[in-house]
């Protein structure tokens, strides 16, 4: 009996453009939960949206690609992605797979 394990990764992304006031955080949370990812999303005071995605590499990559477009009304100018750390997952609310966090 063979098992196939998909590699788990953690990526932190910062999305810039018209990404606040257009439902970007709620959209990100809904899509991430639908994909069974762990992490968080929050606005930043500089006008960007920051998110952390943890899960299978292919699913995280697809989520990041979706963030390059965002929800209707968003206009993404740039998206920076870098490796995240497991420590960042502790920013989530207790008991939640994916959290919508306050502005930082």
Strand and helix map with partners:
Elements: E1 8-18, H1 24-34, E2 38-43, E3 49-56, H2 57-67, E4 75-83, E5 98-100
Parallel strand pairs: 2-5
Antiparallel strand pairs: 1-3, 1-4, 2-3
Molecular structure report:
- The chain is α+β, with helices and mostly antiparallel strands and 104 residues long.
- The protein has a domain at 21-39 and 55-94.
- Helix content is 21%, strand content 36%.
- It has 2 helices and 5 strands, in the order βαββαββ.
- It has helices spanning 24-34, 57-67, and strands at 8-18, 38-43, 49-56, 75-83, 98-100.
- The chain has a 5-stranded mixed beta sheet with strand order 4-1-3-2-5, with helices on one face.
- A hairpin with a 5-residue loop joins strand 2 (38-43) and strand 3.
- The longest helix has 11 residues, at 24-34.
- It is globular and about 30 Å long.
- The model is unreliable at 1-5 (pLDDT under 50).
In brief:
The chain has helices at residues 24-34, 57-67, and strands spanning 8-18, 38-43, 49-56, 75-83, 98-100.
β-strand amount: 35-45%
Largest sheet: 5 strands, mixed
Q: Which structural category do the helix and sheet elements fall into?
A: alpha+beta
**Biggest sheet: strands side by side, in what order?**
4-1-3-2-5
Helices and strands, in N-to-C order? EHEEHEE
- Count of strand segments: 5
Helix content: 10-25%
Number of helices: 2
Q: Separation of termini?
A: 47 Å
The Cα radius of gyration reads 13 Å
Low-confidence region ranges: 1-5
Residue-averaged pLDDT, rounded? 94
General shape: globular
